[in-house]
Amino acid sequence: MMSIDRPRNFRIFFLFVIALLGIAPVTSAVELFPLDELQVGMRGYGLTVIEGTEIERFEAEVLGILPDATLSGDLIMIRVSGSVIDRAGGIASGMSGSPVYIDGKLVGAVGYGFAMADHRIALVTPIHDMLPVLERIPVEQRLPVPSEDPKVIALDADLGAELPFTAIAVAPDPTTALRWQEELGPGVGVAVPVPTPLMISGLGRRTMARLGEALAAYNVVPVQAGGAPRGVESAPFEPGSALGVQLARGDVNISSIGTVTYVDGSGFLAFGHPFFQMGDVDFITTTAYIHHTVPSVEFPFKIGAPLEPVGRLLQDRSAAIAGTLSSFAETIPLQINVFDRDTGRRQTFRADIVNSTELTTAIASVVALEAMDRAIDRIGSGTARVIMQISGEELPKRVVRDNLYFSHSDIAATSLTEFLTGLEAIVSNEFENVKITSIRLDAEVEKERWTARIVEAVPLQQDVYPGETVDVQVRLRPYRGEEELKVIRLQIPFDVQPGEVTVTARSGGFGYFRMPSDYVPTGVLVPEDEDESLDDEWDRPSIYSLEGLLDVFMNREKNNEVVVEFFPYYSVDSAYLDYYDESGYYGQSSYLTPVQASLATRYVIQGSDTFTLRIAAPPTRSVEKPAAEGNEDEEDTEANGQPKDEPAEPMAEEPSQPQGERDLNPPEALNAMVYRARRS
Question: For 282-302, what is each residue's pLDDT tens digit?
């Protein structure tokens, strides 16, 4: 049997050497018990850890075989007993994977139990159904689709007489089990996978609750736990040992606890049921220390802590989880630096999190929120500046976004919304599988409210010709402060048609170029009152490459910007000129894009105002088309004499703020004009 008790650096060297020599680590082979020879009444034993790292033995008796009970095949019903079971209170969360032997031959792993019932009755996943999972390393992911209807298996009369039910159904999770129990009645026992305790350290009460919500669909039970005792760094890794599967490691630890079933060379099997059933995965695998096993009427459970990493979990299937001891998981280093300007306190949070399409954003969100909560030690209003940086091997550029946020009620959570949207966009993008190599957040938070409302916007000239510029004076009223005047220069396109247009001055926080909804985590960025107001082509650019996606995210408007814009009249000929630039960003007809200019401020901008601007017909003289449209830095000054392009403090939407006063849609007359142009 394989023992992992050497220092980690020696282990890495040892594995490197045997890899070069083409030699597999040697472990003692275990004989497998043929399922067709299994009979009711046979007695054997199981192995598990209920305290510390010592493997202990419990007794097991075969009660029957349930054919085709799960997606993976049959299940074996056993009754467990002995002092170990008495101390644990029965089959406990964390015992999943405990190997069961008869005549010294491996039968399978404890995988299922019964909540609110006899905790000495368990269902074992046969080892013959678990081994194919180990053979999938590496393998293309193929996940079976679970059935929605219960399969009820009648028990033999003799067996049924010993149990409080006459038939059994095996549910994939506790929620389904409750529904099935109501449908099937008390005469049917509904088994569930032995719950996998998710041991958490480093999270507070609300981040624990957030994590529980994020993982509610999976068969995991979040439990607040500490670390291992000082001086305990390693433990054996062999059948019956406690093992940990980690989703985050560092200042925050998120680990599931189970039991090793089988070790063959560097490969291993555990659990006897799925973890998340995600197929191909790459999770941290550790040995584990068990503090105590707590008896419970609902379901006994272990409280434990992960020790040193020993390998990686690569397969998460219906019959078992499987992995290797020959390499370590490729994780994402996450660093969050928070500065509380009110107290002068600085705090740095570090954790390695799993690289998973399904889990990375959820895990990063709770770690980042915990870092913010712990640094400012309050939940309430405030202003925050957040700079996010994400690097990855397949990314065409490093993703950097700098924005300013304000919240009336929860500045810590609000300031993370754009970060989570950007991360989810990268992780779930439809173009390339991105291997993220690092994530960094730098945040400055203070109680003071740095917001300013747009009071009025007026043009400094009423008439303007195509190709010219117009200066727009915007009056801002900072929160409980003196009004300020800003001047924004708006370039009129050369090819617009004469006529009156409605110009809007607004906050950059809710612009027309938002992320497509496919990349916005549910409830993160789009406020309820704005979710339907921009539900058409006006707000959504088409994206045809990863680079195009990143450009849209990094270049969109910011919360501290005043945006002045209008939708011009164009000729129908130019209205349908599509373009496709080198970055892969595809833009539709120019009438769908407003003419814009923006100005960065030190405030989160709120409110809006509109005015009418008359675009005059060009005079008989020709109007030269400018060589390049854009800002003329030497003329871009504000009314107070300050440079227009003062450092921009990025922005993003604030979900908690009502946006009723913002006029985000183009005028109805323009909509009608566009509709007619499109019809033609």
Answer: 999 999 999 999 888 888 888
